[in-house]
Amino acid sequence: MKKTLQTIVLTAILAVTGIFIGNAQELGVRFGDVSAGSVAIDGIFSTGEFNRLHADLSFGNGVAADLLWDFLYRPITDEAFNWYMGVGPYLAILDETVYKEGVKDSETNFNLGAAFEIGLEYRFVNIPIALGLDYRPSLEVIDETSLHWGGFGLNIRYVFE
Questions:
Q1: Type and span of the H or E element at 109
Q2: Contact 10, 62 (CB under 8 A)
Q3: pLDDT tens per residue, range 15-26
Q4: In principle, which of 21, 56, 131, 146 could form an S-S bond with 40, CB 3.0–4.6 Å?
Q5: Which residues contact 2 (CB under 8 A, 6 or more apart)?
């Protein structure tokens, strides 16, 4: 039953990610602390003048998807600096190493939680590149309840005009 649920969730994540990547206004990578490793495919989808969806698909210790609604996305100056803040769910299927009775074993865990982010972004004026630096703590609700205070990341995205 657990394997079937994992297969269904993984298929849904990949299908939704494919739809998002095809409609992204910005697409790139995120380096740092992400839900399933240290690198993620990073996409931005505009939902209004001052808000947007920020999606990540990460691989490494499994597969994970984050979908954050940046409800604040505002310029800092007249230049290309912006700041943003948002919240949203994340879903991860992680392969973790465990020790059972002194023997090393592998275990697959299903994690569901919420993440918060706050960050700064610079959009180059003459080239279609955006660089962002953000902080993303998260609250895991399902498999265990825990608070993860890490979550710093560097985003490098191509901006589609």
A1: strand 103-123
A2: no
A3: 555 555 555 688
A4: 56
A5: 108, 110
